[in-house]
Amino acid sequence: MGREPNGQDRTTAVKEHDAPSSEPLRTKKREKAGDQDGKISGKALGRTVEAFMRLPGIGRKSAERLAFAVLGMPREEAAGIAQAILDLKNSSRYCLVCNNITEEEICGVCRDEKRDRTVICVVEEPSNILVLEKTGTFRGQYHALLGALSPLDGVGPEDLKIDGLMQRLKAGGVIEVIIATNPTVKGETTAMYLAKLIKPLGISVSRIAYGLPVGGDIEYADENTVQRALQGRREM
Amino acid sequence: MGREPNGQDRTTAVKEHDAPSSEPLRTKKREKAGDQDGKISGKALGRTVEAFMRLPGIGRKSAERLAFAVLGMPREEAAGIAQAILDLKNSSRYCLVCNNITEEEICGVCRDEKRDRTVICVVEEPSNILVLEKTGTFRGQYHALLGALSPLDGVGPEDLKIDGLMQRLKAGGVIEVIIATNPTVKGETTAMYLAKLIKPLGISVSRIAYGLPVGGDIEYADENTVQRALQGRREM
Fold first, then answer.
1. pLDDT for A42 beyond 90
2. Shortest Cα distance from A234 to chain B (angstroms)?
3. Any idea which fold B23-91 has?
4. In angstroms, rounded to a whole number, what is the distance separating the alpha carbons of residues A97 and A4?
5. B40/A108 touch (CB, cutoff 8 Å), yes or no
6. Which residues of B touch A100 (CB under 8 A)?
7. What is the ipTM for the molecules in this complex?
8. Chain A residues touching residue B140 (CB < 8 angstroms)
């Protein structure tokens, strides 16, 4: 299994996401909420509401609920949350082999001798590895690209961790690559690009299935999904 | 406006909620999630997932999403969240007059000279004050009881901040008390108890209205709510 020679930016801190374009508006909203809440329930509370609103999916109401929950916690527990956030930023890095999040040079999955080294599952983000691991069905290795191809946003192959993947494949031993990028235009583009690159190496390339989500209602599925579910039908 | 003579426990830190009875089970679940995630994506991430799961309404999946969001934040922003949590616990206290959350002796609402001092709105928790303030319709004072009567849980009148309320009322100047405790059995019990206590002082006591939530569908409302909405009907 080859390491990337050009691993310079991997040993540094985890990549920070660019602020989305709506950031100035969101900042304004946050500051307003923090100010208003601060006037009513103290500045410390207002600042905490503002801080929590920086997290994805946390609006003003949730942020207020969380802030009051922290207020009602034992001091050590609240301090524990604060410390965990600091530690996370300070000690997490990308695995030198697969770009998973880890505190060591090589992540737990890559170090695990019992895992199948003949299959690599390619994902967009390290967080996807967590999702796949929780199914408990995949026992191979992973490779996180740290993004997906998006020509419109100026994200090309050189912006993804594709070199490292190719080196791992060229080092030999891998017989199948499962591409588990997102079921989106970007993810699909990336999957097709990778398939074209990997197939000439004589390695089998597969794509995870599209279809109806388990527990979903066919009535609410969009046409594309239903079409894919039909195409992907399997004999029972 | 009288201050509470027995204000000793108010100048100390904000009351910490007792752990609910399901706490051992929740702790186990949190630790398991933290361990599993820690094995896959590093211990720092596992600990942060565990920490976020301590917050209300944050399950494992949300905690993981938040942890990866923190990981993708600029370092100062993550540190800001951690600091806000610490500051909140260290500098927030109860207002000596109304038990709102504040960083001063007396909260911003109580200090505001422009507010109507003839009306006091009684709520269970300081967080309720934030909700009422956001409506922008109430310009009087507040009083947070820091709980509600619950004989089954052993919570009696002496466990609530009722003494302080009565002293404010006896000091004179208040002509109406609006009871805005929760529309639950506990809140209702508390409302009735307070009404009995306050009415002899010659002060008008009102209860916030029960009815259909705005934007709700009558089809999905429970019978009790519909019954209350009918009883509370107003001429158009």
1. no
2. 30
3. Helicase, Ruva Protein; domain 3 (1.10.8)
4. 7
5. yes
6. 40-41
7. 0.78
8. none
Q: A16–B41: do the CB atoms touch at under 8 Å? A: no
Residue B5: predicted pLDDT: 43
CB contact under 8 A, B85 and A48: yes
- Asked if the Cβ–Cβ distance from B107 to A42 is below 8 Å, we say yes
Compute how many other C-beta atoms are within 10 angstroms of the C-beta atom of residue B158: 7
Reported as a pLDDT band with limits 50, 70 and 90, residue B13 is low
* Residue B123 bridge partners (DSSP): B144
Per-residue confidence band for A20, with pLDDT thresholds at 50, 70 and 90: low
| pLDDT tens digit sequence for B102-124 | 999 999 999 999 999 999 999 99
- Tell whether domain A101-231 is in CATH 3.40.1360.10: yes
Residue A194 CA to residue A181 CA, distance in Å, equals 10
Q: What is the mean pLDDT of residues B170-181?
A: 94
Round to whole Å and give the CA distance between B198 and B223.
31
Cβ atoms of A94 and A102 closer than 8 Å? yes
pLDDT of residue A36: 87
- Which residues are CB-neighbours of B161 under 8 A, at least 6 positions away? B4, B99, B143, B144, B145, B146
- Mean pLDDT confidence for B44-54: 93
Q: Which of B45, B95, B129, B146 is most worth mutating to test chain A (most A CB atoms within 10 A of its CB)?
A: B45
What amino acid is encoded at B1 in this protein? M
Would the CB atoms of A14 and B109 count as touching at under 8 Å?
A: no
Residue B97's nearest CA partner among B166, B138, B150, B143 is B143
| pLDDT at residue B10 tops 50 | no
The verdict on a CB contact (< 8 Å) between A55 and B41 is no
Nearest one of B236, B179, B235 to B210, comparing CA atoms: B179
- How big is the A-B interface in CB pairs under 8 Å? 210
Which alpha helices (H) appear in chain B, and where do they start and end?
Answer: 23-41, 43-52, 60-71, 75-91, 108-111, 126-135, 162-170, 185-198, 223-231
Q: What is the residue extent of each domain of chain A?
A: 23-91, 101-231
